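Project outcomes to date are best conveyed with an example. Our students and postdoctoral researchers have been running inverse folding experiments weekly, and each run begins with a structure described purely in tokens. The record below, which covers 228 residues, was selected by the lab manager from last quarter's runs and is presented without edits.
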């Protein structure tokens, strides 16, 4: 009798186990299938990965780790529109262009507002990814995975930085200069570029921009050398 009792207990436990497996398979199928569910726990090489590991997403086309090292700036994106932020993808970055605002004494915020208002005024097409104020503040106007309207023939593969200024000769304040150097250093490192990939607007089309660094070649070369 004892043998039959033990057999009944084992049989009951086995039935419960089978029922649990059936319920688990049913639940997985309701969630989209066992293959889809288990696929999240296997990496591309077929090796299992920790289920608690979260996928780290890119930010503006840049790895989250690299993006987290960027200089301090204020993100204030322009409204998507055909005159200053078309929303077209920037899929590669081969150069960084430095500009000056050609509007002495205006702030970064004022120049950002000018770009924003183009959607209403339709005056022209113009923008930049960044504007650096004469106190060193940086405003990001365009995401780094979108083009800006800054260098007609190079918008599709470059990032542009506008710099505010106070001096009549177009030279930058020390605060603007320091912020520009820091931003250029981060961008060149992030996109695996060299100092030779840092260009003036003048270098593409001959526009006298940024004027001080066009008229003073030695100052431009020094600026590039300061990018570490």
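After processing, the design step wrote out the following sequence:
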């Amino acid at each position: 009798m004892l043998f039959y009792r033990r057999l009944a207990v084992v049989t009951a436990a086995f039935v419960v186990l089978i029922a649990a497996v059936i319920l688990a398979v049913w639940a997985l199928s309701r969630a989209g299938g066992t293959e889809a569910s288990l696929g999240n726990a296997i990496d591309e090489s077929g090796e299992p990965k920790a289920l608690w590991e979260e996928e780290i997403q890119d930010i503006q086309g840049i790895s989250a780790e690299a993006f987290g090292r960027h200089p301090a700036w204020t993100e204030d994106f322009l409204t998507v529109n055909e005159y200053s932020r078309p929303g077209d993808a920037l899929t590669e970055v081969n150069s960084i262009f430095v500009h000056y605002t050609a509007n002495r004494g205006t702030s970064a915020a004022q120049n950002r507002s000018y770009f924003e208002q183009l959607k209403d005024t339709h005056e022209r097409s113009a923008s930049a990814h960044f504007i650096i104020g004469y106190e060193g503040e940086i405003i990001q106007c365009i995401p780094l995975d979108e083009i800006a309207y800054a260098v007609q023939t190079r918008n599709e593969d470059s990032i542009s930085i506008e710099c505010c200024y106070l001096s009549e000769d177009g030279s930058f304040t020390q605060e603007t200069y320091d912020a520009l150097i820091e931003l250029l250093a981060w961008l060149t490192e992030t996109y695996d570029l060299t100092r030779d990939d840092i260009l003036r607007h003048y270098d593409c089309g001959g526009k006298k921009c940024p004027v001080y660094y066009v008229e003073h070649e030695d100052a431009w070369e020094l600026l590039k050398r300061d990018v570490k």
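The chain has two domains: 1-55, 64-225. The chain has a mean pLDDT of 86. The training component of this project remains on track.
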